[in-house]
Design a protein that fits this description.
alpha+beta, 5-stranded antiparallel β-sheet, 3-stranded antiparallel β-sheet
C-alpha cells in the first residue's frame, strides 16, 4: 500500500463553479503509478467548496450557482456580517456542499464518469487563493 500527500494552491477565482480536474492531475504525476486506489481532495477553507459535476455543458455551473444563491441569498438577515455581505452566505453554501471528495483510481486514472469533472465552487464574490490537500492511497505497480 502506497501513500502520497501533496498540497496545492489554486489561483483566486470569481464566484461560481470552476473546473480544476486538470490542476489536480498536473499536481500528481505519480498517479500513473497507481493500479487501484483512492484520491481524496480536501479544501482548507470555509467559504469555498468542492463538487463533482457535469463538465460538458457550461450552463450546468451557471444553473448550480443560481440555485445555491436562491438557497443562501446575500440579502438574508444574517447575524455574522463583519466580513461583508457575501461571507455568511458563503459559509452556508459550504455547509450545504462538500469540503472534501473521494474519487476511485484505476490504472493510473481517476474513475470519473464520461461527463464528470472536479470543480472548485467559490462562494465569495472575490475569494482568495485556495489551498487543497491531495491524498493518494493504493496499490502501485
Amino acid at each position: 500500500m502506497a501513500w502520497l500527500q501533496r498540497e496545492i494552491q489554486l489561483p483566486a477565482f470569481r464566484q461560481g463553479c470552476h473546473p480544476i480536474t486538470r490542476e489536480i492531475l498536473a499536481a500528481l504525476p505519480e498517479l500513473t503509478q497507481f493500479k487501484v486506489g483512492l484520491l481524496h481532495i480536501f479544501i482548507q477553507h470555509t467559504s469555498a467548496s468542492l463538487t463533482v459535476n457535469e463538465n460538458a455543458d457550461p450552463d450546468v455551473p451557471v444553473d448550480l450557482q443560481r440555485s445555491l444563491d436562491a438557497l443562501a441569498p446575500e440579502d438574508f438577515s444574517y447575524e455574522h456580517t463583519v466580513e461583508g455581505p457575501d461571507d455568511m452566505p458563503a459559509h452556508v453554501k459550504t455547509s450545504l456542499t462538500d469540503s472534501s471528495l473521494t474519487i476511485p483510481i484505476r490504472d493510473g486514472r481517476p474513475r470519473l464518469g464520461t461527463w464528470q469533472g472536479v470543480f472548485l465552487w467559490e462562494h465569495r464574490r472575490r475569494g482568495g487563493q485556495r489551498r487543497l490537500v491531495l491524498t493518494l492511497q493504493g496499490e502501485t505497480e
